[in-house]
Amino acid sequence: MCVQCLHGRFKEEECSCLCDVGYGGAECAEKVQFPFHSCDVMIDGDCFMVSSDTDTYYGAKSQCQDRRGVLVPIHNQKVQDILAFYLSQLETSNEVTNTDFETRNFWIALTYKPLRDSFRWDTGEIPRFSSFAFGQPDNQGFGNCVELQASSAFNWNDQRCKTQNRYICLHAAKHIAQWEDGS
User: Fold this and answer.
1) Between the CA of residue 145 and those of 29, 83, 176, 177, what are the distances in Å?
2) 5 by DSSP, 3-state: which?
3) Contact yes or no for 168/58 (Cβ under 8 A)
4) Parallel, antiparallel, or unpaired for β 106-113 and 118-121?
5) Residues 22 and 45 in one domain
6) CA 19, CA 6: separation in Å to the nearest integer?
7) Which DSSP string corresponds to 129-169?
8) Where is the C-type lectin domain (predicted)?
9) How high is the pLDDT of residue 178?
10) Same domain, yes or no: 134 and 154
């Protein structure tokens, strides 16, 4: 039996919940406080947290939810450019502790849905903005999850979902004021 989502949306294909920002737990029932001190990058009031650990795509989604956020969607060039710049600075400052190839890449909230024959954000939206690297996507159904790829200046690449990557969690500004008000 699948879970019931109290403050979120049920994802039938995964039998899991995608929590609204500000809620966590398996059923999105736990109200949580916003961790201001944890933001690595702030863009237009939105908080982006870059993981220091690695996980599979679905593990990364769960980790973001546990940290009271969502795996990051990238809806415009501004966010793409700022995140790419920040991640490139991490590379040059040696803050990436594990130099394995895979850990230099970062999951984002975009997957290929074979039944719809298209890439979709975790919310189900069709991307209006895309930043795939030259020649990408190219895995023809084997790379159903999307990463920011270090070797292509953090442009997007389709990758196998079970690959171990770092990830970026988003805490959206429009929900922060609601949390502070207690609503």
Assistant:
1) 27, 18, 28, 32
2) coil
3) no
4) antiparallel
5) no
6) 8
7) ---BPTT-S-STTS--EEEEEGGGTTEEEEE-TTS-BEEEE
8) 43-170
9) 37
10) yes
User: Do 110 and 38 share a structural domain?
Assistant: yes
pLDDT at position 32 = 65
Q: Is the pLDDT of residue 75 over 70?
A: yes
Side chain identity, residue 113: K
Question: CATH number of the domain that 45 lies in?
Answer: 3.10.100.10
Total domains in the fold of the chain = 2
Per-residue DSSP letter, 45: T
pLDDT at position 79, please?
Answer: 95
Q: What single string gives the DSSP state of each residue in 68-83?
A: TSEEPP--SHHHHHHH
**127: Cβ–Cβ under 8 A, 6 or more apart, which residues?**
75, 110, 119, 120, 121
Do 75 and 1 belong together in one domain? no
Distance CA 113, CA 67 (A): 26
Most confident of 11-15, 51-55, 97-101: 51-55
